[in-house]
Amino acid sequence: MSEKPEAKPILVWGLLIFLALIWGSSFILIKRGLDVFSAGQVGALRIFTAAIVLVPLSLPKLKTLTPRQWKWLFISGMIGSFGPAFLFAIAQTQLASGITGVLNALTPIFALVVGVLFFGGQLKKQDVLGITLGFAGTVLLIVAGSGGELGNFNYYAFFVIAATLCYGFNLNILKHQFSVLTPKIITSISLLLISPLATFYLFGYTDFLEVMSNKEGAYLSLTYISILGVVGTAFALIIFNRLVQLTSPVFTSFVTYLIPIVAIIWGIIDGEVLIFWHYIGIVLIIVGVAFSNRKKK
Predict the structure, then answer these.
(1) CB of 138 closer than 8 Å to CB of 157
(2) Residue 162 burial (CB < 10 Å; 0-12/13-18/19+)?
């Protein structure tokens, strides 16, 4: 018999909060990586370290895949990991980590929109309300200035929006293409398939080795990015899988609401300033996600 959240409430809530802490801390880790490395280097290092730590899971399963699964795992890796890793890093060169963490909460909304437009999903009235609120909050975050006024358009927010759109496509691809594969296999092999691209770019088209040799703080920033890749991807995946086993996808989706809170707290600790309109935008996005995720009885 499977364990239910009622049987071990401390365990399941502990895992949920721990998972939110890990994923909510990703944005401050990206910020610390950008202290020394370029956005491209941060993105490539994130993919490289995550793929390396998951090699024991991915290599033994390679021979069991069909050509069709290989194709879709590569597409999933590019859309769900490679693209977002670079897009988030580029965004955070000009965007606060806390705001980036809040915009990341748009993922369920984009998953819903993509499902309706491209995968035959259905849109309910509450979904329309959730999408409207979510995008209204996004607009506020994009145009809110640092001095309390509206009007300073931050184009770098579109990199985060593009990343969450990628996540939305990937979630639908996972749902429709990989019903027979476990999340561990999907994640580990998709990362393995795209890791050569990240490695080739990192060592062939950037000055990564020169930065490591000559720039002060390089090893510390590399440690932060390694934590991002290893803990934020591999370790978090194990926790996520365990949480789904213990509870349900509905309960696990609650992590979506906790991640922005963790990201904002880290941002405030690091000296980032939020104004009134930021808070309004944050509330609108979280409420919008709640409406989009709510199930009818």
Answers:
(1) yes
(2) middle
Written as six digits, the tokens of 37 are: 């490395």
pLDDT at 268: 92
pLDDT at position 142: 85
Q: Phi/psi of residue 175, each to 5°? A: -65, -40
158's tokens: 């579109």
- Burial label for 78, CB within 10 Å (0-12, 13-18, 19+), is middle
Taking alpha carbons only, the member of 80, 78, 104, 85 closest to residue 30 is 85
Q: What is the 3-state secondary structure (H, E, C) of 100-129?
A: HHHHHHHHHHHHHHHHHHHCCCCCCHHHHH
Q: Which helix (H) or strand (E) holds 207?
A: none
Residue numbers in the chain where pLDDT is lower than 70: 1-8, 145-151, 241, 244-245, 248-253, 293-297
Amino acid sitting at position 179: S
DSSP secondary structure letters along 254-290:
THHHHHHHHHHHHHHHTT----HHHHHHHHHHHHHHH
Please answer whether residues 65 and 107 qualify as being in contact, where contact means their C-beta atoms are separated by less than 8 angstroms. no
8 Å CB contact between 114 and 165: yes
Q: What is the pLDDT of residue 2?
A: 44
**All structural domains of the chain with their residue ranges:** 9-293
pLDDT at 133: 92
